[in-house]
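COMPLEX REQUEST
Ligand: zinc ion
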Amino acid sequence: METPTMMTIQLPGGWLLRHGQKTCGGPAELAWNGKTVLRDFQCRFDALTDAAFAVRTVRFFRKGGQGVASSEGQVNPLTGNALRQITRYGANAARVTWDVAWRKDTAAKIGVEIGSATLVGVWRRVLVIPDFAAWANGQTAQWHDLQPGKTLVISPIPLAVVGERDDGVQVEFSMGFDVWRWQRGLGDFGPGSSQVAFTVNDQDVTFQRQILRGGEDVVPAAREYRFCSQIAWRAPAPAAPAAFPPAAPLAFQADGNGLAALPAAGSDGVLSFALDFAAMPVAPSARRDDGSGLPCWESNVTQRAARRAIRQIAAAGATGFLRLDGLTPGRCQDGSHCDRKHGAAHWDLQGILTFAAWARQCLGDGWTMTAPQPHDPWLLLPSLADPLAVTGFRTSTDEE
Ligand SMILES: [Zn+2]
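STATUS: Structure written out below.
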């Protein structure tokens, strides 16, 4: 696998990524302790994968404490469908954005896959967090066993799937905030036109995420389609969480003007705080419309209020301990949170991960932080295992 054309990215906890330096998409490989976990995270237009596209640009850089891989390519350099992928890596999760430019009068005969991959080794089961509509109807997350030689199919594409290998390694493929885009896909081609499938082979599992199952007469409208998603990974026995000194609870001011005065450090001079975002006062228009009344993390109002609180904590010291509660996803259809005029189905896992990455960057690596989850299925999602982890991507030239 290691050739001069591969870019290697080291991650905390013995994880390693490889990206083709002259190919679209990726990563080509995710490995843990020297053994491959995942190969060829890729998109596919009919028979052609993005690694075979004509490449326009490939760039790797660091920004905001994250490692960024960006690429653009085209099926045919002049006339074919085009794809742009931006991948933002944190410690154990990446946020992926795809822009698919579909050409006029182009059929999807076999279909279109985004963020498919090969899972290497023996994978025993898959956790499924159902699609938005099923979740709203009360369906809960469920484990499905994988059977040798069989294919597990779930349609429509669920909010998240987590594969578990026989050694306990887990990989998550989850939907970005833009549920309504995934629901719409590349057009209305009827029920069952999108799905995920896990096919169990001898040495690996083929994971396919089909945003459009094709056919001779399946011709998406010519335009650009955007889809956001996350991929995350977790070792079987994650490092034990750091011991926290007793924490002083922080309180929001009722008038929405940030935190009340922060308590002084204890007699040992150590800062240790706990903050619950469920108690953050934000306008009703910034809350989820699912009846919970909790702030929606896709709302700019929520993000601004939460970032203000983190800046106040950062001003208190360069080191300390911080426990953040309330960083738990929920569903919402208030379109204003996504710059939509009308209702738009979304969930806010992505907003939580974006905020967590920003908070780590703002507070610096001197703070020991945790964001515990209250219950399943959120305890089971690798992306939420340690979203505030030190990434190793901080640079002295980073902007805030
Ligand atoms: Zn919302």
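REMARKS: The first strand starts at residue 6 and ends at 11. The radius of gyration is 21 Å.
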